[in-house]
């Protein structure tokens, strides 16, 4: 399970970057030739998304070939099988299709959720993010709120933690079966002393402003 979660985490990092690039492309003025090139790249990015197909009894996940560049894909496949998922196939295009029972998928979703919660706990406890006092969230991570010391938060690099929150939260939504291009949620920064929400980031719309 941990192997698949690691792969998913890498995938979400690529997805976040792709979304940011796509937003920048939409707002810039380009020549017709540049537009054709960018449209081709966007189609390629869409094809590189992780796909989750929930059937009646099983869940099928297709991991894009880009996740295995420079890796021994046969070794990756064997490691996934060792985690109890036997139906693993490498496709002609280099992608990998993993089929599991709904029970196994439910277990994996729980592990992904636990990974997100562990990250939130680390933000609260880490000496690297001293301005973050608490992290609140709803059941499905549609809204995440960082309760912070506003002055310290704005004057330090702690605000970069928003990237990690976006990455891990997007990972959860994608693995739940939401298409990457449809994932959306919001991240609030809230002053612990006053209760004021002084910043809200809408994923993915505001992502380019975070970069």
Automatic annotation (TrEMBL):
Task: Provide ranges: composition bias, Basic and acidic residues.
Answer: 26-38
Tell me if Flavoprotein is a UniProt keyword of this record: no
Q: What is this protein called?
A: Antigen I/II N-terminal domain-containing protein
Kindly give the PROSITE patterns that the UniProt entry links to this protein. Answer: PROKAR_LIPOPROTEIN
User: Region Disordered: what ranges?
Assistant: 21-51
Q: Which intervals carry biased composition (Acidic residues)? A: 39-51
Q: Which domain of life is it from?
A: Bacteria
State the UniProt keywords alphabetically.
Signal
Q: Does the record carry Signal as a key word?
A: yes
